[in-house]
UniProtKB/TrEMBL annotation:
It catalyses: NAD(+) + ATP = ADP + NADP(+) + H(+). Its EC number is 2.7.1.23. It comes from the Eukaryota. GO terms for biological process: NAD+ metabolic process; NADP+ biosynthetic process. Signal peptide: none annotated. This is NAD(+) kinase.
Amino acid sequence: MSLDELPHKKLASSDAIQFARSDSRFRSLSPAPIPIPTAPSFRSLVEPVSDERVNHNTVTSHESENGSGSISTVSSTVSSVESEKAAYEFLAQTPIKSTDAHLVEFSEAMRTVAKALRRVAEGKAAAQAEAEEWRRKYELEMTHKQQRKIKGYGSCANNELEKLASQLTLETPASDQAGCCGNHGICSHEVLQDESPGPNPRSSHKLVSRKASFRLSWGCNGDKNGQHKHDFVSFEKGDITTAERSNKQILLKWESSPQTVLFITKPNSNSVRVLCAEMVRWLKEHKNINVVVEPRVSKELLTEDSYYNFIQTWDDDEEKKMLHTKVDLIVTLGGDGTVLWAASLFKGPVPPVVAFSLGSLGFMTPFPSEQYRDCLDNVLNGPFSITLRNRLQCHVIRDAAKDELETEEPILVLNEVTIDRGISSYLTYLECYCDSSFVTCVQGDGLIISTTSGSTAYSLAAGGSMVHPQVPGILFTPICPHSLSFRPLILPEYVTLRVQVPYNSRGQAWASFDGKDRKLLSPGDALICSISPWPVPTACLVDSTTDFLRSIHEGLHWNLRKSQSFDGPRD
């Protein structure tokens, strides 16, 4: 057979089978619809041809051993040429370029989405880790404070309880002591004594050895008959309804006569000094009350007259810390600032406060100084209404303290804590969290975290609402925020607020507590605020609501305008 006849010669059976296999592979790559639009590459189309060449070469080597190598080699060459021609024709007919363009665009979009999701996940994980770290620090600090408190008071309590049980008894009968607690209110039966009851040359300056007990009760609808309502919610027959509520006017009734009164006076005032001397003399001569004053006031009174050598004071901070165990009543002569100063002397429980108005506005000073005899008679005899004013407990956490918290005592404030920009010309940048939830970022002059008693102070000037002092809540008021939608908030009393200066802040921040004790907050530092368990009980002239409304009417002239004349157009 000549070479010219080779193109018209049918392929051998083995060659036909091999070509059929390659042809079937090309048919599998036809542009029929497939579930995933993956375009075939040129390499995937050419590799089958390369495989066929290998198969043909293998067959050729076997046939050459049988004496027919030349014919098989020519046949495999023709088959390879036709296979490559068919592959190129198929590539020319398939729209691979357009499919690749769409796939490239789709893959770029998916990569962009994946990057965005990864950034969001990383940010969320970082925020959660930071929140957990701050929570761990706060819990560690509370544990340390509790341990110090237990160490400070535990030994004293263990040593004194046996003495108290053996040496002193209450004036009230035992049956009254057992029955006055529980559903009737809060009772106080603590009786305390000095460490050295024996004779002492400085006994005239020591604090007294006895503290009066009292009972707190809740009047219902203004009634003072001793009835109390504690069921606020009823679940009767599967329905939730609001039960009849008490008006929550709290009454204090002495169970034993008060023996010790602490005087806190406004400094640098001659009228206050004269009134203080007169009240001290009257209490000693007519009520036989032990009087405790500040060291400054003690020097002033003793310099004026040696008659006042019976007054008592404290010599150091340790005695000042134990004032709450000795004092039955606090009398303040001044304005609201004097009440704030009196509250700052007590880091724990605070005795009832009788505040006489000798200041400017007097939101917390309802008693007139001209009628001090009648007012003190009513308070000493009881019962009288009180307002429990919540305080904020503030902790400063430094960024440098990675494992240990700043070893400072918690700061108690009665009005507000303010975080401002100080002398910096930049906006204050603060991150605020409520428990573990992000609240907002403050960009402005600062932020006020206030009690409801402080709602008529700085918070009011910054646009916050006036709130009744017995409403349980925390005021969240921005100072000149650079946002028209940043309105003040009132949060529930049980939350814990964390205000942090972020690391990318342009400047520092300053925190002040009731207008004093300013502390620098650098980037990374945080301030944690929560309601203190020790409120300030202030005596009421009438009751809590009447005194509050009187204060805003007289102090702020709230909603004062001329009345509309009656002689005009009518419907």
